[in-house]
UniProtKB/TrEMBL annotation:
Top-tier EC class: hydrolase
One GO term describing the cellular component: cytoplasm
Pathway: Cofactor biosynthesis; 7,8-dihydroneopterin triphosphate biosynthesis; 7,8-dihydroneopterin triphosphate from GTP: step 1/1
Protein name: GTP cyclohydrolase 1
Statement: the UniProt record of this protein carries the keyword Cell division: no
Catalytic activity: GTP + H2O = 7,8-dihydroneopterin 3'-triphosphate + formate + H(+)
InterPro entries: GTP-CH-I_C/QueF, GTP-CH-I_N, GTP_CycHdrlase_I, GTP_CycHdrlase_I_CS, GTP_CycHdrlase_I_dom
Organism whose genome encodes this protein: Plectus sambesii
Length: 269
């Protein structure tokens, strides 16, 4: 069977398959690989693979409260911070911001904005609550496939850690498997986990590549991100069409110019 059977893959050489992420054939793939082979990496394998990459939750642990209601409210809001309720604290901070930009925080349209903004910020940074163990659990498959796998145009939304404004774009991932492949939808989940944090594009690129490398020990991993930064578009140089490209090449993609060129050619439209 062919490893990828989406409609939109290109086949520039017999050994390479390209999958557009938008084509929607992703989720079926992992189960297809699993049933064809019948062997799924055990939990232990997965955990061992990611031991070095395990991501801890950044927020401080919940502090026991003497008041049961406070405790329930804090848990309902996600986590508590030592100073009180996280959501309330953040909303208070946003109220201050709204006042300092010259607005009336009590104006009707802004009354619930601090709380909404706080919730939105928690969503934009929900990657802190995720870890690779959970995301890749049961999605590493033993497969005798040694041809380049490329998933391109994975949508990415992140927050620039220098200005707390968005940067967004597309992520292209390629890897050359040895004995293990990753469920294709999981590549997007890895992108999501790292991008939903305060980031710089360079680090995001490398974190994705290293995570895939440690997960399945492929012969090489290539990650390219093309993104537009609102801190450049809306302020500073105000170059609306400027995009920033970053790449991280590991293994054969770094060592072998031909493999790298093949990948770079295939991700071009
Ligand atoms: Zn910035």
């Amino acid at each position: 069977m062919s490893f990828l059977n989406g409609e939109s893959y290109l086949q520039p050489s017999p050994k390479v398959y390209v999958q557009d992420f938008d084509s929607g054939a992703m989720d079926g793939m992992s189960s297809g690989v699993a049933s064809a082979n019948g062997s799924i990496a055990s939990d232990n394998d997965v955990k061992k693979d990611f031991g070095a990459l395990r991501v801890s939750v950044k927020h401080p642990p919940y502090q026991a409260s003497t008041d049961d209601d406070d405790e329930r409210a804090a848990i309902a809001a996600g986590n508590s911070s030592p100073g009180g309720n996280k959501l309330e604290d953040m909303a208070k901070a946003y109220r201050t911001v709204i006042s300092h930009v010259g607005e009336d925080a009590n104006r009707q349209g802004l009354l619930k904005t601090p709380e909404r903004a706080a919730k939105a910020m928690l969503f934009f940074t929900k990657g802190y609550e995720e870890n690779l163990d959970d995301i890749l659990n049961e999605a590493v498959f033993d497969e005798d496939h040694d041809e380049m796998v490329i998933v391109r145009d994975i949508e990415m939304f992140s927050l620039c850690e220098h200005h707390l404004v968005p940067f967004m774009g597309k992520v292209h991932i390629g890897y050359l498997p040895t004995k293990k492949v990753l469920g294709l939808s999981k590549l997007a989940r890895v992108v999501e986990m790292f991008s939903r944090r305060l980031q710089v594009q360079e680090r995001l690129t490398k974190q994705i590549a290293v995570a895939i490398s440690q997960a399945i020990q492929p012969a090489g991993v290539a990650v390219v991100i093309e993104a537009s930064h609102m801190c450049m578009v809306m302020r500073g140089v105000q170059k609306i069409n400027a995009t920033t490209s970053t790449s991280c090449m590991l293994g054969v993609f770094r060592d072998d110019p031909k493999t790298r060129e093949e990948f770079l050619t295939l991700i071009k439209k």
